[in-house]
């Protein structure tokens, strides 16, 4: 690997040439168009490339990523992304996506000390503490993925209670919140059935999704 990372520029040049060859005028059209229907809030893990997982082109998916796909009401970065997506881009779906064997979630589960990120992962530890009694009943080999799914539910519920989403629903703008998990082992997305289209749906959707997780992890692993 070169100091100047010339190999990445070479890759970029080939990608741009191949893209333009497949679809002449692609980049010219992209200049004047950003009309995504979806906001993806996912983990920063390099193994989870949002656009590729759902086979969407640049301009079709608005993306925000951080360690362990956390959404908290003090994070102005995430809230600003949500506000721009909802108010300016008029996205219709906000999808919170965790992934199996997440390193951040694993650290939160086991109380590993990693440095500055420990402070960020306290949000995931809060999820762990909230569900600790049930998590302790889960097979230790499956506890990380169980907490991954619980974390998605909590963060999706946080999205639902942001002022941005609440205000959008109040003016009857279509915004649907989803909670999904991506399997690193098989490349497939799983819908956790945390699907919320209005303020009156939040508690019922959360309870149903939580029951689904508990039922799934009570059964033997697939």
Automatic annotation (TrEMBL):
EC number of this enzyme: 4.2.1.1
Catalytic reactions on record: hydrogencarbonate + H(+) = CO2 + H2O
SUPFAM superfamilies: beta-carbonic anhydrase, cab
Gene3D superfamilies in UniProt: Carbonic anhydrase
Ranges in a coiled coil: none
Keyword vocabulary terms for this entry: Lyase, Metal-binding, Zinc
Record protein name field: Carbonic anhydrase
Gene name of the record: can
């Amino acid at each position: 690997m070169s100091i100047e990372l010339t190999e990445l520029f070479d890759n970029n040049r080939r990608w741009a040439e191949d893209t333009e060859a497949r679809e002449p005028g692609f980049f010219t059209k992209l200049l004047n168009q950003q009309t995504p229907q979806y906001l993806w809030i996912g983990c920063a893990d390099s193994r989870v490339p949002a656009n590729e997982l759902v086979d969407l082109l640049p301009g079709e998916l608005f993306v925000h990523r951080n360690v362990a796909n956390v959404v908290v009401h003090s994070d102005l970065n995430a809230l600003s992304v949500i506000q721009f997506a909802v108010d300016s881009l008029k996205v219709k779906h906000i999808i919170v996506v965790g992934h199996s064997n997440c390193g951040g979630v694993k650290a939160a589960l086991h109380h590993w000390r990693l440095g500055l990120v420990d402070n960020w992962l306290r949000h995931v530890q809060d999820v762990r503490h909230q569900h600790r009694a049930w998590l302790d009943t889960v097979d230790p080999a499956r506890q990380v993925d169980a907490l991954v799914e619980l974390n998605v539910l909590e963060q999706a519920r946080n999205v639902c209670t942001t002022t941005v989403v609440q205000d959008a629903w109040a003016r009857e703008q279509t915004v649907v919140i989803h909670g999904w998990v991506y399997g690193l082992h098989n490349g497939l997305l799983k819908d956790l059935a945390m699907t919320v289209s209005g303020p009156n749906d939040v508690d019922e959707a959360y309870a149903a999704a939580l029951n689904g997780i508990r039922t799934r992890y009570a059964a033997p692993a697939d």
